[in-house]
Recover the amino acids of this structure.
């Protein structure tokens, strides 16, 4: 496996080129990071998550080199294992059959 493929597997980008006022919210995982970089003279922000902070840093530094400006932890409060997980479907209740007593 080449290095680029390994980096992509370690880092998942949650929001790309996002508005921090709307996207940096407490319902994100606490392992997510806000990255700041410059593209064509405009500052852009991404929210990314990785196994380690160094994985996120390495991915963005390798991609943007000198245009990479900063990385900081986001406002997230949710544990990563509980983030973006669908709740289990409720189980159907079994109905008991009503046994009718016979008249004797």
């Amino acid at each position: 496996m080449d290095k680029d493929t390994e980096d992509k597997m370690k880092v998942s980008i949650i929001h790309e080129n996002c508005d921090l006022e709307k996207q940096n919210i407490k319902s994100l995982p606490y392992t997510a990071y806000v990255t700041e970089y410059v593209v064509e003279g405009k500052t852009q922000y991404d929210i990314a998550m990785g196994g380690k902070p160094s994985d996120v840093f390495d991915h963005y530094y390798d991609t943007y080199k000198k245009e990479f400006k900063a990385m900081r932890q986001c406002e997230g409060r949710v544990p990563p294992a509980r983030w973006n997980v669908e709740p289990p479907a409720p189980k159907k209740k079994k109905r008991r059959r009503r046994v009718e007593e016979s008249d004797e």
Remarks:
- The radius of gyration is 23 Å.
- Strands lie at 11-15, 32-39, 42-50, 68-73.
